[in-house]
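Per reviewer request, we include the raw input and output of the structure prediction for the construct analysed in the revised manuscript.
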Amino acid sequence: MRRAILVVGLSFTLCACGGLSRGGYYKHDGPPRYQRVNVSRVPDAVPRYERLSDTGNDPYTVNGKTYHPVKTSHGYRERGVASWYGRMFHGRRTSSGEPYDMYAMTAAHRTLPLPCYARVRNLRNGKQVVLKINDRGPFLHNRLIDLSYAAAYRLGIADTGTGLVEVVVVGPDTMLADKQIAVPVTSAIPRPPSIYIQVGAFSEIDNAERMRRQLYGHTYGPVITQHARVDGGDLHRVRVGPIATVDEADKIVQRMQGQGYLPRLIVE
């Protein structure tokens, strides 16, 4: 029964992320037809201690790929592209078993524990929300997180369909500490975020340069090699970019996948 419920929840989020319309959401999805809720005033979720849900936390497979949800979200921070889902899924069951409410501050993530709480910041405009992660997804288009309609609206990406965001897991203790030291709920963006497509990462610079030269002939755009120290070792990342828009990055990723590469979208 648990597996059956999990598959049902996953199918909703999977659909929400495939077959995207011009607005960035699923072609039959979108905002509510009649705006009965003032979404600009929907409050943030309030983090609290909760046990893991009975469904949605076991390994699962979607589109031939197996995902392994983690048991703890401590220290999680990542940047990427956010999408959102709306009226098509309103009231349906999420992977954690809760009904999806497009007017609530919630989101879907592939591997974070269900449930947990996160602060999501729009890297373009500095707007932030705190939301509850209670669903699985997104599974297509290199998206990091799938937001509820209300969360997307408050972050300023409901119209564009996607946005560059930073996701930081928070808990009751984190929120209390923020209030005690008067951390502002919005903060200035020190520099505009950049979009890259990472195609490979090598410990040997010669292997990275070989891939860089190979990519150069495909006219994907500027190809660079970036050096980093990871766990005490050298890592040479081969990336295409920076890329101007998410739509352009999606098209390049699709071309690369058709030519046998395994690209990954990076936001820095």
